[in-house]
Design brief:
The chain is mostly helical and 95 residues long. It has one domain. The protein has one helix at residues 4-42, and strands at residues 67-69, 76-78. Strands 1-2 form a two-stranded antiparallel ribbon. β1 and β2 (76-78) form a beta hairpin. It is elongated, with a radius of gyration of 19 Å.
């Protein structure tokens, strides 16, 4: 007889490993993006602080910054980012 409890544990374990792998991939992308942004800030390519439309004036209406609109939630993001600042969805295919 096949033990259903063992099958359940094996399937659950496999699904958890797949979820962990996907989560680590996303976290690795976020860390890379953060390192790149830190490097660009230190080099003077990016301002140290930019206003956020939710917490401060002007960032969405300021035409001096190029923005990328999130396809999932519609938030305005700086064009250099790979993930949305509001919902963390990829802004570009393959990100």
């Amino acid at each position: 007889m096949i033990d259903l409890g063992a099958i359940y544990l094996a399937v659950t374990g496999a699904l958890l490993l797949v979820a962990l792998g996907a989560g680590l991939r996303v976290l690795r992308g976020i860390v890379r993006e953060g390192r790149d942004l830190r490097r660009r800030r230190r080099a003077g390519e990016v301002e140290k602080y930019t206003e956020d439309e939710e917490y401060g004036p002007g960032s969405a209406d300021d035409s001096s910054h190029s923005t990328a609109t999130c396809p999932q939630c519609g938030a305005a993001n700086e064009s250099g980012f790979d993930y949305c600042r509001r919902c963390a969805a990829p802004l570009r295919p393959g990100a």
